[in-house]
Structure formats: structure tokens, C-alpha cells
From TrEMBL:
Keyword Hydrolase applies: yes
Recorded family membership: Belongs to the glycosyl hydrolase 31 family.
Keywords for the protein's UniProt record, in alphabetical order: Glycosidase, Hydrolase
Protein name, entry field: Glycosyl hydrolase
BP GO annotations: carbohydrate metabolic process
GO molecular function, one term: hydrolase activity, hydrolyzing O-glycosyl compounds
Organism: Seonamhaeicola marinus
PANTHER family membership: ALPHA-GLUCOSIDASE
Protein's UniProt keywords contain Glycoprotein: no
Matches recorded under InterPro entries: GH, Glyco_hydro_31_AS, Glyco_hydro_31_TIM
A Pfam family this chain is assigned to: Glyco_hydro_31_2nd
SUPFAM superfamilies from the UniProt entry: (Trans)glycosidases
Residue ranges of domain Glycoside hydrolase family 31 TIM barrel in the record: 1-168
Length: 168
């Protein structure tokens, strides 16, 4: 309300990773955002659009639905020698979806339904989709990470520049 009271022009409120429960994408902090739908509606009533951040790193946690479904469907990027690409980002140890697979892109897009259709979020800030990884040399995927690349398997060196675009 202070923006409006002071006549500060503002069309959108961007929520960084702190809106999430434990930095898990597609979740809301129960402590700080107990009623996200109501908050988003109240912001909209005041003329603000709500934009949320989403990162590709999915926390390794069997209690986290997004992780569990991605794991069950084998949707995460793998290293050349077979194990999933694991790296540390904001939520801790994470796996990363292989957006170069059409079925992964479809799954990922479906995860936005609640944010957009039910809660009323108007925009998404895709971030860390280089993909950034904090605990590896170069701070991104190593070259031995493999991608499906729409049925034409390749190394991350080839897929690097499209990874973020495919996330969108």
C-alpha cells in the first residue's frame, strides 16, 4: 500500500526464493505466505501483478512431490557414466530436469498450473538456468552431463545455450 500512498509507479511485485518452503520450487512458505491466493488477489486489487522466481534445481527430498515425480519418471539430467547430475544450489543438493526432452517440458509446464490458474500469479522469473551449480568448477554443468536433445543425445556442451530456453 505504501507504494500507492507515495505514488511510486509500480506494476509488479517480484518474489525471490524466500516465498518458497525451503527454496523448493512450486511451494509457498507456510510461515511467511500462509495464504498465497489471498495475497496475490489483494495485490491485484491494488493494481500489482505478482511474479515469482523459479529455478531448475529440484531439491533431493522424497517428501517433495516435484522431486519424487521427476525421479519416478526419470526426468533428470544424467552424467555420462549413469548417475543423475547432482549439484548444490539454494535448497541444497539438487537434481536438474532435462528440458531437452519433450515429456519433461510438458511435465514442467504442468507444474505452473496451480501458480497461474489457481493462485493468480501473472509472471515467472526463470533464474539460475545456465544452469548454475554452486559446487562444481565453472559453476555450471560439467561437459559430461548428457541431454536427450529431442532424441539426439548430446553433451551439455551442445545443449548449454538452449537449456534455459527449453526451461521456459
Amino acid at each position: 500500500q505504501k507504494f500507492r500512498d507515495l505514488k511510486i509507479p509500480c506494476d509488479a511485485i517480484y518474489l525471490d526464493i524466500d516465498y518458497m518452503e525451503g527454496f523448493r520450487c512450486f511451494t509457498w512458505s507456510k510461515e511467511y505466505f500462509p495464504e498465497p491466493k489471498r495475497m496475490v488477489k489483494e495485490l491485484a486489487d491494488d493494481g500489482f501483478k505478482t511474479v515469482v522466481i523459479i529455478d531448475p534445481g529440484i531439491k533431493i527430498d522424497m517428501e517433495y512431490d516435484v522431486f519424487r515425480e521427476g525421479l519416478e519418471k526419470d526426468y533428470f539430467c544424467k552424467r555420462a557414466d549413469g548417475p543423475y547430475m547432482k549439484g548444490k544450489v539454494w535448497p541444497g543438493e539438487c537434481y536438474f530436469p532435462d528440458y531437452t526432452r519433450p515429456e519433461v517440458r510438458e511435465w514442467w509446464a504442468g507444474l505452473f498450473k496451480e501458480l497461474v490458474s489457481e493462485i493468480g500469479v501473472k509472471g515467472v522469473w526463470n533464474d539460475m538456468n545456465e544452469p548454475a551449480v554452486m559446487d562444481v568448477p565453472g559453476k555450471s554443468f560439467p561437459p559430461d552431463v548428457r541431454h536427450d536433445y529431442d532424441g539426439n543425445p548430446c553433451s551439455h556442451q551442445k545443449a548449454h545455450n538452449i537449456y534455459g530456453m527449453q526451461m521456459a
